Structure formats: structure tokens, C-alpha cells
Amino acid sequence: MSNIQEQIEQERQEAKNVCGTQGSESAECAAAWDAVEELQAEAAHQKEKQPKRNSLQQYCDENPEAAECRVYED
After folding, report:
1. Best label site of 28, 36, 65, 66, fewest CB within 10 Å?
2. In which region does residue 26 sit, left (phi positive, over 0), alpha (psi from -120 to 50) or beta (all else)?
């Protein structure tokens, strides 16, 4: 997921540059911001596809050594 966040940040910087040189009312500026919005929508879509984790699972991911997170074999 961090890769798409990096792409979003790159596109955001590019959009700022384009709008600064071409003007905020230009078609190039609008297209640059459309690219940012498309990447943000894709990031949101990918986030929805990830399985939901309950609070115990999240806690155990962060604290695998905690007693509540131990797994015992029979």
C-alpha cells in the first residue's frame, strides 16, 4: 500500500508544478489533479479489499509477545 501512497505524493507534486506553470484554470492542471484523484480512488478500493481485523488481532500484530496472543499446540 505504501507504493501507491508514494505514487499519489509524486502525482500531487507533479500537479502542483503543472498548475504553477500552466495556470490553475488550464486543461493540463485539471488532468494532473484527475490523475491524483484516480490514484486516491484506487488506494481506497485496495483498502476495502483488505480483510478486516478485529481489535485483538491488531493488538497481537503490534504485541506478539503478549500473553493474550500466545498460541499453544496440543
Report:
1. 65
2. beta
